[in-house]
């Protein structure tokens, strides 16, 4: 059953940049902002999925980039600002939850995890902040995860990155608040996407999380769209440096 979606009228014609927007949660976010009438650009490394999304929605601007490359991050930010004007909303969504237990982590795999899951959030925010100042303010929404709160043994590097995003969110909120730029974080629980089912989630995993949750159903990418729209909109104008957990009541 589709998740009902409210209309946030102040998002109409707002310039929005979303990272990792080609598939999964990111694609749902792109569609959600497009449905609000926002002018949307998204960054993704997966060209096929991204072009399919652009064709289906016939609205967003796709910017191909590898977010592990900081020069590419800065160029993507400038491309979005050139195409859309001053950016009002940045959604730092891109991530990859590789499983790698303590014994298997190497220097290279640790650095890769931080590059994929953490580093680009800072540098994209740094690149977009001047454009938000030009717009008179804005909203940055960082995607973290409840994973670091669950003592999950197989994801030490990923959990570290997701915990660090909360600290980054609060620090950026302190720095950018005087410029009327709000910074908040969303912490999803188990979101059942096709990629998750293909790589990690088995029926027993899904059933186990549903048993733990207050809401006895699987959460999907659509469950994150409304909270993200709220944080991007004027409805949350007094809210910054906060975290919003969307996990069906698992914690």
Question: What would you note in describing this structure?
Answer:
This protein is α/β, with parallel strands linked by helices. The chain has one domain: NAD(P)-binding Rossmann-like Domain (Rossmann fold, 3-Layer(aba) Sandwich), CATH 3.40.50.720. It has helices spanning 24-35, 47-57, 70-84, 107-135, 156-176, 194-199, 203-212, 222-232; strands at 15-19, 39-44, 61-64, 89-92, 138-143, 181-188, 243-246. A 7-stranded parallel sheet has the order 3-2-1-4-5-6-7, with helices on both faces. Helix 3 runs parallel beside helix 4 (107-135). The protein is globular and about 45 Å long. The mean pLDDT is 95.
Report the order of strands and helices: EHEHEHEHEHEHHHE
The total domain count is: 1
According to CATH, the fold-level topology is Rossmann fold
Known CATH architecture: 3-Layer(aba) Sandwich
Quick one: biggest sheet? Answer: 7 strands, parallel
Secondary structural class? alpha/beta
Summed up, the helix count is 8
The counted number of beta strands is 7
Question: What sort of overall outline do the alpha carbons produce when their principal axes are compared?
Answer: globular
Mean pLDDT across all amino acids: 95
Order of strands across the widest beta sheet?
3-2-1-4-5-6-7
Rg, Cα atoms, Å: 17 Å
Distance between the first and last residues' Cα? 24 Å
The CATH C-level name is: Alpha Beta
CATH superfamily: NAD(P)-binding Rossmann-like Domain
Q: pLDDT under 50 segments (min length 5)?
A: none
* Percent in helix: 40-55%
Q: What share of residues are in beta strands? A: 5-15%
């Amino acid at each position: 059953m589709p998740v009902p979606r409210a209309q946030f009228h102040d998002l109409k014609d707002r310039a929005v940049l979303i990272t990792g927007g080609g598939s999964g949660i990111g694609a749902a976010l792109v569609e959600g902002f497009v449905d609000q009438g926002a002018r949307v650009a998204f960054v993704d490394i997966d060209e096929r999925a991204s072009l399919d999304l652009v064709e289906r929605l016939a609205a967003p601007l796709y910017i191909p980039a590898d977010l592990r490359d900081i020069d590419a991050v800065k160029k993507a930010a400038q491309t979005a600002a050139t195409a859309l004007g001053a950016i009002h909303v940045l959604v730092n969504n891109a991530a990859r939850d590789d499983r790698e237990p303590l014994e298997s982590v190497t220097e290279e795999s640790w650095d890769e995890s931080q590059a994929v899951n953490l580093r680009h959030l800072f540098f994209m925010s740094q690149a977009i902040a001047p454009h938000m100042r030009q717009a008179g303010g804005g909203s940055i929404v960082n995607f973290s995860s409840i994973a670091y709160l669950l003592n999950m043994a197989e994801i030490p590097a990923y959990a570290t990155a997701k915990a660090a995003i909360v600290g980054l969110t609060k620090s950026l909120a302190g720095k950018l608040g005087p410029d009327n730029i709000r910074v908040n974080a969303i912490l999803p629980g188990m979101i059942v996407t096709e990629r998750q089912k293909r790589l990690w989630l088995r029926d027993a995993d899904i059933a186990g999380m549903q048993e733990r949750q207050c809401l006895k159903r699987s959460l999907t990418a659509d469950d994150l769209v409304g909270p993200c729209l709220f944080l991007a909109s004027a409805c949350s104008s007094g809210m910054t440096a906060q975290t919003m957990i969307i996990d069906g009541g698992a914690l």
